[in-house]
TrEMBL record:
<dbReference type="InterPro" id="IPR009057">
    <property type="entry name" value="Homeodomain-like_sf"/>
</dbReference>
<dbReference type="GO" id="GO:0000160">
    <property type="term" value="P:phosphorelay signal transduction system"/>
</dbReference>
<keyword id="KW-0597">Phosphoprotein</keyword>
<keyword id="KW-0902">Two-component regulatory system</keyword>
<dbReference type="InterPro" id="IPR001789">
    <property type="entry name" value="Sig_transdc_resp-reg_receiver"/>
</dbReference>
<dbReference type="Pfam" id="PF00072">
    <property type="entry name" value="Response_reg"/>
</dbReference>
<protein>
    <submittedName>
        <fullName>Photosynthetic apparatus regulatory protein RegA</fullName>
    </submittedName>
</protein>
<feature type="modified residue" description="4-aspartylphosphate">
    <location>
        <position position="57"/>
    </location>
</feature>
<dbReference type="GO" id="GO:0043565">
    <property type="term" value="F:sequence-specific DNA binding"/>
</dbReference>
<feature type="domain" description="Response regulatory">
    <location>
        <begin position="8"/>
        <end position="122"/>
    </location>
</feature>
<dbReference type="InterPro" id="IPR050595">
    <property type="entry name" value="Bact_response_regulator"/>
</dbReference>
<dbReference type="InterPro" id="IPR011006">
    <property type="entry name" value="CheY-like_superfamily"/>
</dbReference>
<dbReference type="InterPro" id="IPR002197">
    <property type="entry name" value="HTH_Fis"/>
</dbReference>
<dbReference type="Pfam" id="PF02954">
    <property type="entry name" value="HTH_8"/>
</dbReference>
Length: 189
């Protein structure tokens, strides 16, 4: 099996905190990680120096992870790509694999999940579904609502009035939802 620890990696995710935390953990495992916050930055980095591995968030403002996956395959068909998402579905996973992704990992994912997906591929193990299916728990409806609100709020630059308009709810209702803490996942503290 090839040594994964000397390989270049492109990590593209619009969530800066998650992206930098995952990049640091992957660097600690020996990867040469370059990061980008959107599809255009990711394409630019890949065109400068095509990575051997890529980890892409599926949903980002503007162009999404599937768009970047297509571009990476155009730039270098040999780039092995894993898609990360908090909004996954079977249809999306199938489409990602059809476009050339080697695996599809639900968020929250950590560096061990990412490395395991690449190692599984390198060993030639067939993909039977997401690399972390044994530990994945579907998020609660309340958690999905909270994540969707946060995504829209982020897309609107923190503007509550515009976010409320896009969500189709009253501004005060959105403010009340935002005052609550993020719902906990089942079985997690």
């Amino acid at each position: 099996m090839p040594n994964l620890e000397t390989r270049s990696m492109l990590l593209v995710d619009d969530d800066e905190t998650f992206r930098e935390r995952l990049a640091r953990a992957l660097r600690d495992r020996g990867f040469d990680v370059r990061t980008a916050s959107n599809v255009d930055e990711g394409v630019q980095l890949a065109e400068q120096d095509s990575p051997e591995y890529a980890v892409i968030d599926l949903r980002m403002p503007g162009k999404g992870g599937m768009d970047l996956l297509r571009e990476l395959k155009r730039i270098d068909a040999g780039t092995r790509t894993v898609i990360l998402t908090g909004y996954g579905s079977i249809a999306t996973a199938v489409e990602a694999v059809r476009l050339g992704a080697i695996n599809f990992i639900p968020k929250p994912a950590d560096a061990d999940d990412v490395v395991a997906a690449f190692e599984k591929y390198e060993r030639g193990d067939p993909m039977e579904g997401p690399a972390v299916t044994s530990t994945y728990r579907a998020p609660t409806l309340a958690r999905m609502e909270w994540e969707h609100i946060q995504r829209v709020l982020s897309d609107c630059g923190g503007n509550i009035s515009e976010s409320a308009r896009r969500l189709g709810i009253h501004r005060r209702s959105l403010q009340r939802k935002l005052q609550r803490h993020a719902p906990q996942e089942r079985g997690r503290a």
